[in-house]
Write a structure and sequence with these properties.
There is one protein chain. The protein has 255 residues and is of the alpha/beta class. It has a single domain, classed as NAD(P)-binding Rossmann-like Domain (Rossmann fold, 3-Layer(aba) Sandwich). The protein is built from nine helices and seven strands; from the N terminus they run H-E-H-E-H-E-H-E-H-E-H-H-E-H-H-E. Strands 3-2-1-4-5-6-7 form a seven-stranded parallel β-sheet, sandwiched between helices. The longest helix is centred in the middle third of the chain and has 29 residues. The termini are far apart. Bound molecules: NADP nicotinamide-adenine-dinucleotide phosphate.
Length: 255
C-alpha cells in the first residue's frame, strides 16, 4: 500500500532560504502539501513571505512561519537556525535556495561582487549547514542545495555566479561524505526556469535567450514546480547522496 506522504511528513520541518517568491516559494508550497511545516526565510520580501505564510496557515494552522535574515551576515545565519529551532524545536530538511544573481563580465569584476555572489551562493549555505548541523543530525535529516547547470558548463558574462555555484556543488559532495551516514546532502542544478529577477542599467534584461532551442532540448523552459518535484524526490529517496541532479530539459547535453 502506498504511504500517504502528508502523514509521513506530518510535524517535520523544512527550512527554505529565499522562499518568499519564485522557485523557493514553489518548493515551500510543494513540501507543505507533502505535510511539512515550512520555515519561510526572506531578506527583503517581507510582504510576499507573510502573504505566503498566511496562505499556508489557512490550509493548516501553525504550519508556516516567516524568518528574516541577510545571509551575508554570519550572525544572522546562526540566528536564523536558532529562531527556527525556537519556533519548532527541530529541522528535518534544509534547502539552500537563496541566491544573488547578476552579470559580472570579466572587464567589470569587483571584489564587492565576489563577496556578494560567493557570499549568498556558497558561503551562506556552508554556514547555514553548520548552524543546522546538530538539529539535522538529531532528525537524520537532509540538505538540498539549489545550484545551476552553469556550475559545470560555465556561463558567458556570469563568471562570479558560476564560480560560486561550482563551490556550492563541491560543498554538496564534500558534506555528503563528511555528514554521512546521519545527514544526506544533494543538489539540484536547474537550467532555464524563470527569467532573471534583475534588469540591467539600460533597463533591458539581455540574458533572455531568444532561440527557444537554446533553452533546453525540449524547446521550452522548465517551471518552478519542476524544481519542487526534484526536491521532494531527493528528500524521499533515502539512498541518494552527494548527487547534483540536473533539471534542465537536457540543456546540459548541448555543451
Ligand atoms: N530562475 C532560474 O531559472 C534559475 C536557473 C538556474 C538556477 N537557479 C537557482 O535557483 C534558485 C532560485 O532561483 P530564483 O530565480 O527563484 O531566485 P531569485 O528570485 O533570484 O532569488 C531568491 C531569493 O534569494 C534571496 N536573497 C538574495 N540575496 C540574499 C541575501 N543577501 N540574504 C538573504 N536572502 C537573499 C532573495 O530574498 P528576498 O527577496 O527576500 O530579498 C530572493 O527572493 C537560486 O539558487 C538560483 O541560483 C534559478
Amino acid at each position: 500500500m502506498k504511504a500517504d506522504l502528508s502523514t509521513v511528513n506530518a510535524g517535520k520541518v523544512a527550512l527554505i532560504t529565499g522562499s518568499a517568491a519564485r522557485i523557493g516559494a514553489s518548493i515551500a508550497k510543494h513540501l507543505h502539501k507533502a505535510g511539512f511545516n515550512i520555515a519561510l526565510h526572506y531578506n527583503h520580501s517581507q510582504h510576499a513571505a507573510e502573504t505566503l505564510s498566511k496562505e499556508l496557515n489557512d490550509i493548516r494552522t501553525n504550519s508556516a512561519y516567516c524568518f528574516e535574515a541577510d545571509l551575508k551576515n554570519l550572525k544572522a545565519i546562526q540566528q536564523l537556525a536558532k529562531n527556527t529551532l525556537t519556533h519548532w524545536d527541530k529541522i528535518d530538511v534544509l534547502i539552500n535556495n537563496a541566491s544573488s544573481f547578476y552579470p559580472t563580465p570579466l572587464n567589470d569584476i569587483t571584489e564587492e561582487q565576489w563577496q556578494d555572489l560567493a557570499g549568498t551562493n556558497a558561503l551562506a549555505p556552508a554556514f547555514l549547514c553548520k548552524a543546522c548541523f546538530p538539529a539535522l543530525q538529531l532528525s537524520k535529516g537532509c540538505i538540498i542545495n539549489i545550484s545551476d547547470i552553469a556550475a559545470s558548463t560555465g556561463r558567458t558574462d556570469f563568471l562570479f555566479y558560476s564560480m560560486a555555484k561550482a563551490a556550492l556543488n563541491n560543498l554538496t559532495r564534500s558534506l555528503a561524505r563528511e555528514l554521512a551516514p546521519d545527514i544526506r546532502v544533494n543538489a539540484i542544478a536547474p537550467g532555464a526556469i524563470l527569467p532573471p529577477n534583475f534588469s540591467t542599467s539600460d533597463g533591458v534584461n539581455n540574458t533572455t535567450e531568444s532561440d527557444p532551442l537554446s533553452i533546453s532540448c525540449l524547446n521550452y523552459p522548465g517551471k518552478a514546480e519542476d524544481i519542487a518535484y526534484a526536491a521532494e524526490f531527493l528528500i524521499n529517496n533515502t539512498y541518494t547522496n552527494g548527487q547534483v541532479l540536473n533539471v534542465d530539459g537536457g540543456k546540459r547535453l548541448k555543451f
